Structure formats: C-alpha cells, structure tokens
Amino acid sequence: MDQRLYFVLGDLALNLGAGALVGWLAWLLIPAGWNMWLAMFVAMIAGMLLASVLFVPASIYLGAMEVMIPLMLTGMLAGMVAGMRGAMGLVDAGGAAFEGAVSGLACIVAVWILNNSLRGSQAIDSGGSCDG
Amino acid sequence: MADSVTRDKWDRAAPSFDLMASRGAEIRWRPAKEALFSRMGDGQILFAALGTGLDIPTFPPGKQITAIDISPKMLEHAAPRVAAYAGSIDVRLMDVHEMDFADASFDQAFTACTFCSVPDPVNGLRSIYRVLKPGGELCMFEHTGSRYYPFRPMLDLMTKLTEKLGPAMNRPTVDNVQAAGFELLEVNHVYLDIVKTIVARKPG
C-alpha cells in the first residue's frame, strides 16, 4: 500500500463513501421481494457503473489505477450485498449504506494486502506470461 | 502514412489531459518514475510519446533527449515544460510505428504510459528496437493487464469503454517487449501486477 498519509486516508475515505453510496442506491433500486440472485446481479452491475462514474472526479486527486481497481471492486461488492439483502427485506436504507461502507472497507483492505504481496521486483522467466 | 485516428483521439484528449492525468497519478507515480528515469545516461535518449510533458519534471537534468508524439495538440501543451527543462529536449511530431530516425540512433529509449495507447504495440516496440543501438536499453513505466481474477476481467471490461477515448487497460506489455525481440532485464511491480516498470535490452 502507498505509505503516504494523503493517499491512505484518501483511498480509505473514497471506498467507504462509495460503498455507502452504492449500498444506499442499491437499496433504493431493488424492491423487497425480488429474486435475490437477480437483485444481486442487477445491483452488482449498477454498483460497477456508479463506481466508473465516481472514478472520474476521484482520479484527479488520488491517481489512476490505484483508484479504479478498488473502486470497481467496492461498487461490485457493495451492490451485491446491499442488493441481495434489500431484496430479502433484511435491511433498511441506513443498514444498506452501512453494509456498503463495510464492503468498501473490506475491498480497500483486501487490495492493500494483495498489493503488498505482488509489488516489488519480479523474477524474470523467458517463458510464461508476465501480465494480462 | 500517419495514423490519423490515433492522432485525432489524442488531439481531442489534449485540452483535458493534464486535469485528468496530472495531480493524483503524477504524485502517486512520481517516486517510481524518478527511479526509472534516473537510469538516463549521457548518450542519445529517445522518449516515446511525450504527451503534454507531464513526465519532464521527473527527468534528471542535463540529458540529450529526443521526444516524439503523434499528437500536435499534445506537443503544444508540452511546450512550456520542454522550455523549462534544464537540458536538451528535441521534440518531433512522429508516430512510433513509423519513426524516420536511422537504425541504431539511440543508446536508450524511455516510455511512460505509452504502450497502453499505441495501436499495434509489438510493431511499435519493433520500431524502437530498430532505432536502438545494439546493447541499447528500453526502460518503460506502463500499466498493463493483470494475471489475477477479478482484476483481469475488470480490466478487459474497462478497456471496452476507455479504448475509444484513450488507453487500453489490458495490454500484455511485458510479453510484447519480449515478442519484439528485447531481452528482459527487470520487471518491477509498482501497484499490484498492473502498474510496473520494465527494463529490457536490445541484444548486441
């Protein structure tokens, strides 16, 4: 993870806020009583779309790929969780926003952990694919 | 013949390029770029795709650099940064696929977020290979695709949106460098396995 406080706090606040927003919007979008799998899928797509929109202003202040990757994950997960639980009638608006924020926290922490394991100098092999 | 589609795409992006690409990304990536560009030596240096010159403040001073870009509008925006550089930057409007430099003209070539946007990356890299001297070094700061789920499909999906306006997000640039004939020396992951520096050499 980036050690600079500006980016640590920025990444954290962005993903918490985006998760809460996606969770709340997923709750608004999905009526209680929907099939939970359909609700999860629709809210996941909606969450990713909203994350793509949020990426544009956030990238100006916080970077490019370091913003896009966790934000897309947050949109996807927060949408799935809040959409599914909203369809099952298990959360209210505040609960959906809270669960979305927790999803955002989980995503940014997961990306930080993964980044710590992947970053740094790589062994060179002449055979297999190194990327993509 | 110049690639007018790519040129027009980057001409359109030029007015807002600094707003979208400068603050956050440049501050975030500056330490890795400075470390890579500190490899610039005293010989002839090619910088492929100067853009608006956002990378110029991270160049070490006193170097002899020839910088190319396909977009005249990008180079217009780069002019003040080129003028402020404490060294020599010779700016040329040129497509990396069709550079009109003689074979073996340069000791080193540098790129920064270039091969996410070059339409035919392996041929672009072969073109750099041609103008490098034997033993010459290629140093790249690039974002690429990922080997890992869910990043790989996410980057594939994003590419469908971003490629129309700017860069692709899923290029296998390390593999492309090898496919162009370079010998890979170093790969350093800056962020996940997506943002990375690559150092390669033209066998000599």
Question: Could you explain how this protein is built, in words?
Answer:
- The complex is a heterodimer of chains A (132) and B (204).
- Chain A is mainly alpha-helical and 132 residues long.
- In chain A, 77% of the residues lie in helices and 2% in strands.
- Chain A has 4 helices and 1 strand.
- Chain A has helices at residues 5-29, 36-62, 65-87, 93-118, and one strand spanning 120-122.
- In chain A, helix 1 (5-29) runs antiparallel to helix 2 (36-62), helix 1 (5-29) runs parallel beside helix 3 and helix 2 (36-62) runs antiparallel to helix 3.
- The longest helix of chain A has 27 residues, at 36-62.
- Chain A starts with a helix and ends in a 10-residue tail after the last strand.
- The model of chain A has no long low-confidence stretch (mean pLDDT 92).
- With 204 residues, chain B is α/β, with parallel strands linked by helices.
- A 7-stranded mixed sheet of chain B has the order 3-2-1-4-5-7-6, with helices on both faces.
- In chain B, helix 1 crosses helix 2 (23-37) and helix 1 packs across helix 3.
- Chain B starts with a helix and ends with a strand.
- Chains A and B meet through helix 2, helix 3, helix 4 and strand 1 of A and helix 1, helix 2, helix 5, helix 6 and strand 6 of B.
- Strand 1 of chain A pairs antiparallel with strand 6 of chain B.
